[in-house]
Automatic annotation (TrEMBL):
Name used for this protein in its record: Uncharacterized protein
Listed Polar residues bias regions: 36-47
Region (Disordered), start-end ranges: 1-21, 36-67
Example GO BP: vacuolar transport
Coiled-coil ranges from the UniProt annotation: none
Signal peptide extent: none
């Protein structure tokens, strides 16, 4: 009896199936088929590595941004 009361308050189990059907219908109307798109993704093979063993050099723009940020922080500490 307690479980029935909780089920009535929380909703029916059929609601989940119904909501899944509605979501699938909306995705179909939008022309999206998630399972087809996900199955077409390439697999990574379980690990990532840099091709040819090259070291990745930091980009100059990021280095300049870091230097600028460091300078601004140092100026704030002095004030």
């Amino acid at each position: 009896m307690m479980n029935d009361a909780i089920d009535d308050a929380m909703g029916d189990e059929d609601d989940e199936d119904e909501s899944d059907a509605i979501v699938s219908q909306v995705l179909d109307e939008l022309g999206l088929n998630v399972s087809d798109e996900l199955s077409n993704l390439p697999s990574t093979g379980g690990s990532l590595s840099v091709a040819g063993g090259k070291k990745v050099e930091p980009q100059a723009a990021l280095a300049d941004a870091d230097a600028d940020l460091e300078e601004r922080l140092n100026n704030l500490r002095r004030d």
